Each structure stands twice: as structure tokens, then as C-alpha cells.
């Protein structure tokens, strides 16, 4: 599988406060220890879903704080510092609190990724945790990097290609980076637009609906979207509809 070249691995030190706000989880798990089929799927879902949910709760809290700050006439020093911090994490070096378009743009990025969608994509990209990249690099979402030695070289990589499959210290890091990728990368602008429209219309954020915005996640485009939706439907992942 080849993925479009949109992802960058670089996460600055300033981002780490937002990337890892929750407690560590034992990362020593091998899904190949579970028989293929229902038992492995159950272990996979049980392991990944709490990490995804906790990250989503953190995102929701950040979003609620942003909404609160956007309604204030003046921010204190601590609030302004926090706003600058999170704004930089989402790709804006400066933030004008008097500019409503900047508030809207930031809020479009600071939002949850439904657990059902994250699990479905992780299952698709890692073969329910059985792939070489999951086993050797903790990469559960097929994400690439472009610095020599940053990851594993795909066996089917073209001769002139330079990408590697990113290597992570933990499954948690893979999940957090994936969510940040969906929330910031220009390739997933449609994903974020669909999510924002669902918010504005008061509808529930579901993985099945939001999968429609991931045509650029894979070169398979619409077929990839249908595969993810089928995973959500066939494995009844919609039980995790959203964090908020």
C-alpha cells in the first residue's frame, strides 16, 4: 500500500504538552499472541479504545476552553499564553484574538476523532495489529516520514522513493500522531469540514460519516472510504459513536 505524501513526522517540543496529556499505559502487547479472528479483534479494540477515548476527552476539554476564551473580551496573561501554545501546536505562529476567522479555523482543528473511525483505520492499516509495521514500529496507521532512518523501509518502495514508514516508541504515540495528522494536515481538510458541519447542525459525530472525508488517506480513494465504513459496520464499531 502506498500513501499520498502529505504526512510529516516532525512534532516540535512545544507540542508535547498537548500530545501526551494522559497517563502511560503498558505498551508490551503482541496481538499475534491472540488467535486470528474474533479473539484478536476483541483484544485489539479493548486495548486501543481507552487510549483513543482519553485523547478525545483531552481534545474536547481543549475545545471547550477555546470556546470559552473566544467569548471573553480580554484574556489574562495565563489564558493568552495557553492560547498561543495551542495555536502553535495546530500550525499558527500568531493568533489575533479579535479575528473571528482565526477562532473558527482553530476550533475546526481542535476536535475529536470518533473512536470507531480510529479503530477501523488502525485495523485496516495494521491488519488488526499483525503487520510488520505494527509489530516492529508501533505504526498502526500507515503513516510515513521522510528523514533517512526515521522508520522502516517498505519492501515494495519504488527505487526513487525516499519515504519510510514512521517508527513510534509506543502504540499511544502512533494514535496521538494519527489524530493530530487528521486535525492539521491539508489533505484532510474535507474531513474537518464534514466534522464542523455536523457540529453546526447538532448531529452526532460518527466514524461512518467522517470516513467520507478520508479519500486522500490512501491512493485507493473512494474504495478506501468504503472499506473503512465496512469495517465500522461489520464489526459494530459504531458502539463508540463519539466522545462528546
Protein topology:
Blueprint: H1 16-19, H2 38-70, H3 77-89, H4 100-109, H5 115-126, H6 132-137, E1 144-145, E2 151-152, E3 164-166, H7 171-184, H8 189-200, H9 207-210, H10 222-234
Helix pairs in contact: 2-5, 2-7, 5-10
In brief:
With 244 residues, the protein is mainly α. The protein has ten helices and three strands.
Structure description:
A 3-stranded antiparallel beta sheet has the order 1-3-2. The chain has 244 residues and is mostly helical. Helix 2 packs across helix 5, helix 2 crosses helix 7 (171-184) and helix 5 (115-126) packs across helix 10. Helices cover 50% and strands 3% of the residues. It has one domain.
Could you state the oligomeric state of the chains shown? single chain
List the total number of helices.
10
Which strand order do you get reading across the main beta sheet? 1-3-2
- Estimate the global geometry from the Cα principal axes: globular
Structural class: mainly alpha
Quick check: average pLDDT?
A: 87
Order of secondary-structure elements: HHHHHHEEEHHHH
Number-wise, the strands total: 3
The biggest beta sheet reads: 3 strands, antiparallel
Low-pLDDT stretches are 1-24
Distance between the termini: 33 Å
Question: What share of residues is helical?
Answer: 40-55%
Amino acid at each position: 500500500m502506498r500513501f499520498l505524501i502529505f504526512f510529516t513526522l516532525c512534532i516540535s517540543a512545544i507540542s508535547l504538552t498537548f500530545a501526551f496529556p494522559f497517563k502511560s499505559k503498558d505498551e508490551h502487547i503482541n496481538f499475534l499472541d491472540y488467535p486470528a479472528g474474533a479473539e484478536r479483534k476483541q483484544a485489539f479494540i479493548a486495548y486501543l479504545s481507552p487510549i483513543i477515548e482519553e485523547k478525545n476527552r483531552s481534545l474536547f476539554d481543549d475545545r471547550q476552553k477555546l470556546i470559552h476564551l473566544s467569548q471573553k473580551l480580554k484574556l489574562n496573561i495565563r489564558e493568552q499564553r495557553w492560547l498561543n501554545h495551542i495555536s502553535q501546536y495546530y500550525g499558527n505562529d500568531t493568533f489575533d484574538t479579535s479575528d473571528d476567522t482565526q477562532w473558527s479555523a482553530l476550533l475546526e482543528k481542535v476536535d475529536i476523532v470518533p473512536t470507531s473511525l480510529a479503530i477501523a483505520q488502525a485495523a485496516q492499516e495494521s491488519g488488526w495489529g499483525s503487520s510488520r509495521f505494527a509489530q516492529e514500529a508501533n505504526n498502526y496507521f500507515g503513516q510515513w516520514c521522510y528523514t533517512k532512518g526515521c522508520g522502516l523501509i517498505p519492501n515494495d518502495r519504488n527505487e526513487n522513493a525516499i519515504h519510510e514508514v514512521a517508527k513510534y516508541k509506543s502504540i499511544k504515540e502512533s494514535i496521538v500522531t494519527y489524530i493530530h495528522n487528521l486535525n492539521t494536515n491539508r489533505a484532510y481538510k474535507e474531513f474537518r469540514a464534514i466534522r464542523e458541519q455536523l457540529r453546526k447542525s447538532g448531529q452526532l459525530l460518527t466514524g461512518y460519516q467522517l470516513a467520507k472525508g478520508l479519500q486522500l488517506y490512501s491512493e485507493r480513494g473512494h474504495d478506501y472510504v468504503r472499506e473503512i465504513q465496512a469495517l465500522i459496520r461489520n464489526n459494530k464499531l459504531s458502539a463508540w459513536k463519539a466522545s462528546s
